[in-house]
Amino acid sequence: MKKKDFISLLDYTSEELHSLIDLADQIKANPKEYSNSLSGKILGMIFQKNSTRTRISFQAGIYQLGGTGFFFGANDLQLSRGETIYDTANVLSRYMDGIMIRTFAYSDVQELAKHATIPVINGLTDYNHPCQVMADIMTIREKLGKNTKGMKLTYVGDSNNMTLSLIYMCANFKMNMTVVSPMKYQLKEREDVKKIALKIYPDMKLDFVEDAASGVKGSNVIYTDTWTSMGQEKEREQRLKDLNGYMVDSKMMKLADKNAIFMHCLPAHRGEEVATEVIDGHQSVVFDEAENRMHAQKAIMYHLMRD
Fold first, then answer.
1. What is the number of helices (H) and of strands (E) in the chain?
2. Annotated catalytic, 306?
């Protein structure tokens, strides 16, 4: 039997992703039923990028399923001294039952998954963030209903790994999406991404616009992310200038549907990409979203690592 990984939404069918979210709902509602489901299992967690939510949600999640998580920082493995991913994958496969990696290059995750004989989970790369969007769709279904067909999600700000993953999430759950960014900050590969998304959901309305007011109008979900990601710190001042006017504030939220929710993968920079009155307001679901990282990832680990 071929081992399974979770490194991109594109590796799963829409039906499989729906089943994973249904499983996450079940685990969240009935934690005791799953408390020994991964008893004795060990998850290795490789962090070449720092984290709050990814580390804690995976470590708490594997523990709540009866297993154990081992944390490895950027300098804890011989990868930092030049050991190959091939060798690392083969060694860790002899000791553990699964690997989660949070790193920079998506190609490193692909290579790790290729050579490991145990499941590999993508905890984040500069290219995509599949675990986060699983928590996001779980939260959207909780707040707005399980029938997500036709809902509109608008992403505002710097197009990045979250934008890409949200597009594929929306396609798989039959949602429409508008990306609002200055042209300089739009996805470079947006035309190719659009072709892929439309293969998943041919009726999807996927737009890339610069004008925030028209892009946000009628949205069910407003989503943003930090304007300066890890590794972009030297660009911070320029980014603040370029993205001026794209902060999600109460005025922007009023253009959305009256029952719209605000989402952010965190960490947030209040007063930059989002106003304090929005992230702390009644439409914000950011902390429910953060909690659901753990539940969605528990479903992924259960799916991949159980006997």
1. 12, 9
2. no
* DSSP 8-state class, residue 117: S
Catalytic residue selected from 55, 129, 190, 295: 129
Q: What is the CA radius of gyration of the chain?
A: 19
CATH class (in words) of the domain with range 9-129+293-305: alpha beta
For the entire predicted model, the pTM comes to 0.97
Instruction: Using the structure block, give the residue that is written with the tokens 């950027």.
Output: 74
Is there a catalytic annotation at residue 170? no
Of the residues 141, 190, 293, 295, only one is catalytic, namely 293
The answer to whether 293 is a known catalytic residue is yes
Q: Is the peptide bond before 267 cis (omega within 30 degrees of 0)?
A: yes
Is the fold of 9-129+293-305 the same as that of 132-289? yes
Left (φ > 0), alpha (ψ -120 to 50) or beta: where does 263 sit?
beta
pLDDT confidence bin for 1, thresholds 50/70/90: low
Question: Could you read off the pLDDT of 133-169 as tens digits, one per residue?
Answer: 999 999 999 999 999 999 999 999 999 999 999 999 9
CATH class of 132-289: alpha beta
The single-letter DSSP state of residue 283 is T
Each domain of the chain, given as residue ranges in start order, spans 9-129+293-305, 132-289
* Side chain identity, residue 65: L
Label the pairing between strands 206-209 and 221-224. Answer: unpaired
φ, ψ for residue 63, nearest 5 deg: -65, -45
Distant-in-sequence, close-in-space partners of 110: CB < 8 Å, separation ≥ 6: 7
State pLDDT tens for residues 195-227.
Answer: 999 999 999 999 999 999 999 999 999 999 999
